[in-house]
């Protein structure tokens, strides 16, 4: 039986007709202006002194950071777990898949939009290549492939994303809200999300 939280997440996601395509606007960023700090493909690690909010103790994989703003996905905020078949049913797809999947809150923007951050051993119609051997899929094809056992080896299913207007993320980094660290796939796909933040802090050079 899926948890009540998982069922609630499914209700939110089913309001969307398909996995969100918002990320497609970020996969081919314009040329980065001189002096602009491009953090694409890196981790944003919340500073220990960040006030209690949705981003406190979060680790964000930056999908894109360019002159138009930035977009990323929180990788350590578990929302719920349940059968993959239930998730597919939420999108109107009949499936008996019983594999348990975990859903993560990718951020507070576009809660009705879904994203699958995964290893680059799978490519579908909606897949876009990222850095560090990662890819991002935003279509139902990746869920169907996972249900058939033909999906990517490593998967992080998320709903919602973190977004910043032009210059906003640069200002937050300069203010010290975020620490930068190299993205680590072992943390992105960790089965212990509650430990990811502390490990990422070490990568950022600020162990607790």
TrEMBL record:
Print the keywords alphabetically.
Signal
Q: Does the keyword Signal apply?
A: yes
A Pfam family recorded for this sequence: DUF179
The family assignment reads: Belongs to the UPF0301 (AlgH) family.
Output the InterPro entries linked to this UniProt entry: AlgH-like (IPR003774)
The answer, when asked if Transmembrane is one of the entry's keywords, is no
GO CC field: cytosol
At the top level, the lineage of the source is Bacteria
Q: Which residues form the signal peptide?
A: 1-25
> What is this protein called in UniProt?
UPF0301 protein MCNOR_0955
